[in-house]
Fold this sequence. Notes:
Blueprint: E1 7-8, E2 10-16, H1 26-36, E3 44-50, E4 55-61, H2 64-68, H3 71-75, E5 81-87, E6 102-106, E7 109-119, H4 122-131, H5 143-151, H6 157-165, E8 170-177, E9 182-186, E10 195-199, E11 202-206, H7 210-214, E12 218-222, E13 228-232, E14 235-239, E15 249-250, H8 252-257, E16 263-264, E17 267-268, H9 269-284, E18 290-293, H10 299-309, E19 317-319, H11 338-342, E20 343-345, H12 347-350, E21 354-359, H13 366-377, E22 382-387, E23 400-401, H14 415-422, E24 426-429, H15 432-440, E25 451-452, H16 454-457, H17 465-469, H18 473-478
Parallel strand pairs: 15-25, 18-21, 21-22, 22-24
Antiparallel strand pairs: 1-23, 2-5, 2-11, 3-4, 3-5, 6-7, 7-8, 8-9, 9-13, 10-11, 10-12, 13-14, 16-17, 19-20
Helix pairs in contact: 5-6, 9-10, 9-15
Amino acid sequence: MIPLGPQEECGVFGIFGQDGESGVDAAAHTVLGLHALQHRGQEAAGVVTYDGEHFHSHRALGHVGDSFSSQDVIAKLPGTLAIGHVRYSTTGDTVLRNVQPLFADFEFGGMAVAHNGNLTNAYLTRKQLVRRGCIFQSTSDSENIIHLIATSLYTTVVDRLIDALRQIEGAYSLVAMTQQKLIGVRDPFGVRPLVLGKLGDAHILTSETCALDIIGADFVRDIEPGEIVVIDDKGVRSIKPFAQVASRFCVFEYIYFARPDSVIEGKNVYAIRKAIGAQLARESHVAADMVVPVPDSGVPAAIGYAEESGVPFELGIIRNHYVGRTFIEPGDSIRHLGVRLKHNANAWRLKGKRVVLVDDSIVRGTTSMKIVDMVRRAGAAEVHMRISSPPTTHSCFYGIDTPEREKLLAAHAEVEEIAKRIGVDSLAYISDDGLYQAVSGAARDPKSPRYCDACFTGEYPIRLADREDSTEPRLLSLMQERG
Length: 483
């Protein structure tokens, strides 16, 4: 099946509950949290728990509901301390050995780690670790963290983790657990999200606030860039061991990745997407009869566009929400059917109409081309496409699955050429300044941008060490199995 946009790789969840009769069922709450984070990764899921004596784990390929719906599975994951992970595979096959959380027995005891993001010096670090005798069991860059902890000469778990993190570069949010602690970390630039919540006496760390909502937990605060939060029976402790740098949160979280009902940096994602759509209408409105979103990611921006422009919002494309895995191999002969499995034109509503299609991005252009063709075949008189992000001209190396730059349509084609290629009467993207205005209320400062927008600008805030230094592209490709 053809992906309908860029794919995020991971969501993380961790809970530290109290022992006793009032203690939480950590596994059940973690599974519910992972359900809420399913949009961040659909290929695999895993949970590790600790019951005071033993660690327990269950990892499986597929959706959370497919792997954790049985009460028998939950019953085999006892304890009031747990972490979980949902994963989207990038390069290579999704195999069980890459499913997180990763677990290892150290001299200080067991430890599990779940990671969201991508390490940009993973390959170079891995080579050094292999030379030191480390034996890797996966192709995930997250395993580097495990080995760096194992080989650290520091004594305490937290000091070992800090030592490990000082040797890695990249974008990451992670949760880790030992017998006594739940630990959360964001990289110094704060590219990937991580929040702290509370449910009664239990503390929670997770990628998005929607995972708190599903279990009835309260949002406490965002974990700050470069912050390590340590939770144990003494409470919550904050450590900031890294040199402070200007934060660069991923702006695409607001455009596409985060769930619309989540709150990030004090901003409701749904409200931000509506504001982006309104700004898009102010910048590039065209005479039309209806505004139609490409569901589901284009819906909030399309609502904002419609409200600002005064053009009616219509569901001109209907999404089938019950599409799972297909037995059909996506060969060239039937590849064009991929879009129809998920979307169908509402021909009765589209016939004879001038349509503004609103979507979040154009990556390769293949999906946009098929969506536009579907709308035209349904009888639309005109099709104008409006995109709620600037042109995607560069690959992401911080945890988002985007193609190599030569496969990005906007990297080598101007807007007019893209419009012709995908078959629309007109095409417009939101401007860089317009995006920043909608998200933060101020235009983009070219000298000090507030967000990571490298996929639009090519300005990478974190050094791409592997790509700069690697002489073995094939092995580097393997190491781009993101966490």
